[in-house]
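User: Design a sequence. Structure:
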């Protein structure tokens, strides 16, 4: 017997709402997404341990081979990517290049954190900051409408999908140009499935992804963003250099409190001007609000529900991240910067 899905009904286990696409609830109030994952979750710790061994092996096998860096990290300065950097540096001692994509919305506190963390870990650091007109055009467009395929909307807002698409592309481009064999991301255990935690980039797959990303953008904007994408010649010329992507947080114990403590030892301080789901980005509150208005569910709910299911976050912690309204001042600030409404007096 399925209870009718209603907007205010939440799964009694994972916090997904009745407005989430394709959801239904059984007589215990548990959603079909939770039921579907039950058997996979019962083998979860075993699979995590196996993936961790695989990552240890992969890192050891490439370490020291390249003349420069062993690994490039897409480094936002947020809690998860800062912790990932610390783990990689301390566990493996790899030579890391940290790359920050400056989307013009990185909080001031986050910049301080970025510099403290890379200095404490003794890392080299690059920043890539696309020009404001192109970022303003991209974020204004994605704030107003959904331009990417429907499945992406279940995982993230259009604004986030656009920004992360550029982060992935520019990080891969630098990895290819500098012959770096590993690309690391700080995805949380709810953001990407365990089995994708170690994945070799396939040139045809990357080409197809880039084609569809560019195809979703108006031609003029795609043209302006061209420097962020891979030139056609790389697929053939660099085909033997395509790196592995890893996201280590899928394999380690993930406890937010413990992570924050470890980061404090590097001088990292939580920003006070970001929303409940970001520790670096001042655009996220607006991105969340627009997504909720258009789709009736929070763009982070799938990620957070996944972490609640895995037991890395309590249900109460999950609810506190997803269900309070966005801070109107943060939303208004981002709108004003993007000139989406007349200047606020
Ligand atoms: Zn559920």
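Assistant: Done.
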């Amino acid at each position: 017997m399925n209870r009718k899905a209603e907007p205010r009904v939440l799964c009694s286990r994972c916090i997904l709402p009745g407005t989430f696409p394709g959801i239904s609830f059984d007589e215990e109030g548990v959603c079909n997404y939770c039921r579907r994952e039950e058997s996979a979750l019962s083998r979860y710790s075993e699979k995590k341990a196996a993936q961790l061994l695989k990552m240890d092996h992969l890192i050891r096998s490439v370490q020291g081979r390249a003349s420069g860096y062993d690994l490039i990290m897409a480094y936002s300065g947020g809690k998860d990517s800062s912790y990932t950097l610390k783990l990689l540096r301390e566990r493996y001692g790899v030579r890391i290049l940290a790359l920050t994509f400056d989307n013009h919305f990185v909080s001031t506190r986050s910049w301080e954190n970025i510099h403290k963390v890379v200095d404490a870990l003794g890392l080299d650091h690059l920043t890539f900051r696309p020009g404001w007109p192109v970022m303003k055009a991209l974020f204004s467009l994605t704030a107003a409408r959904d331009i990417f395929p429907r499945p992406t909307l279940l995982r993230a807002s259009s604004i986030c999908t656009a920004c992360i698409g550029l982060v992935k592309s520019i990080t891969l481009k630098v990895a290819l140009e500098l012959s770096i064999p590993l690309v690391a991301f700080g995805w949380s255990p709810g953001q990407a499935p365990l089995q994708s935690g170690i994945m070799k980039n396939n040139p045809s797959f990357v080409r197809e992804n880039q084609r569809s990303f560019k195809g979703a953008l108006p031609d003029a904007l795609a043209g302006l963003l061209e420097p962020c994408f891979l030139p056609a010649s790389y697929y053939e010329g660099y085909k033997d250099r395509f790196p592995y992507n890893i996201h280590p947080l899928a394999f380690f114990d993930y406890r937010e409190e413990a992570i924050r403590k470890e980061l404090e030892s590097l001088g990292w301080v939580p920003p006070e001007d970001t929303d409940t789901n970001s520790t670096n980005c001042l655009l996220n509150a607006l991105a969340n609000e627009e997504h909720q208005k258009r789709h009736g569910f929070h763009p982070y709910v799938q990620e957070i529900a996944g972490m609640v299911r895995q037991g890395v976050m309590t249900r109460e912690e999950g609810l506190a991240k997803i269900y309070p309204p966005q801070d109107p001042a943060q939303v208004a600030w981002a709108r004003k910067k993007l000139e989406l409404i007349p200047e606020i007096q």
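The chain has 15 helices and six strands. The chain has two domains: 1-42, 44-345.
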